[in-house]
Amino acid sequence: MHLGIEIGGTKLQFGVGPADGQTFIDFVRCDVDIPQGAAGIQRQIREVGRQLVARHAIERVGYGFGGPVFSARGIVQTSHQVSGWDNFPLVEWTERELGVPTRLGNDCDVAALAEASYGAGRSARTVFYVTVGTGVGGGLVIDRSIHGADRPAAAEIGHLRPGLEARTRHHTVESLAAGPAIAHRVHRRLAEVVEGQIADPDAAELLALVEGQTARLTTRDIAETAVRGNRLACQSYREATDVLGWAIAQVITLVAPDVIVVGGGVSLVGEEVFFAPLREAVATYVFPPLATSFRLLPAALGESVVVHGALALAAG
């Protein structure tokens, strides 16, 4: 048996399964105590990991880490969400604490490996994976192997800068297409409606959800109203999918993958609100000779995709 571990900004997930990575015989999820930093997560890994290693005779461990890593050296470069991870030798630490050979990968990279191996891209040779949630990440898998695994980062589609006017590192695809950007555009429009006393039935629907307190309006609220056809919410999603579609078109133009797999919480609003306008945007921006050379598919492995990928990485 192998153990796959996902280290995220808000959650820590452990999955035990066979070398094929497709199924779990044991699964544990823990919330991350962010103020405790990396030390708190390490305590959780030590406690839960030792229990699972003893219970299932674990042979190997694989990690999907939420941030840039030096995979070949087994070192975390940094985390943008949890302090204390800078240049941390996670593989060496795990092998000492759990006594099991260990491999390390970036979370998006191992998620890409999972979708390419057992998910939506399993029939393809070249798979580009995109996740859209609180951020936008990517991973490229060629012949069941993660591209750029020897680099601190690769396939970082969310950090593309959309256009020559995007001159700062804060003006990125992620800053315009991720969940917080979708919410920000809606909040901004609601503020305009309230301040200008503008009659807008779609804004009124959103304001009624939170009794006029716009700060309480969540990304989930916006997603649910978009699915019901709220034009203001749908427009914010359309702006996000236009930017994301532009970015995916650049990937297609440069790499020509067989399949693009798109997952993450933002994509879960479905075909009409997310995937249809995304495909339309990709078609607008892609290099014409490649316009019919790929398939764009929803991810298949859900919230446990990184753990599936970590198992696949462990199996190596």
UniProtKB/TrEMBL annotation:
<dbReference type="Pfam" id="PF00480">
    <property type="entry name" value="ROK"/>
</dbReference>
<protein>
    <submittedName>
        <fullName>ROK family protein</fullName>
    </submittedName>
</protein>
<dbReference type="InterPro" id="IPR043129">
    <property type="entry name" value="ATPase_NBD"/>
</dbReference>
<comment type="similarity">
    <text>Belongs to the ROK (NagC/XylR) family.</text>
</comment>
<dbReference type="InterPro" id="IPR000600">
    <property type="entry name" value="ROK"/>
</dbReference>
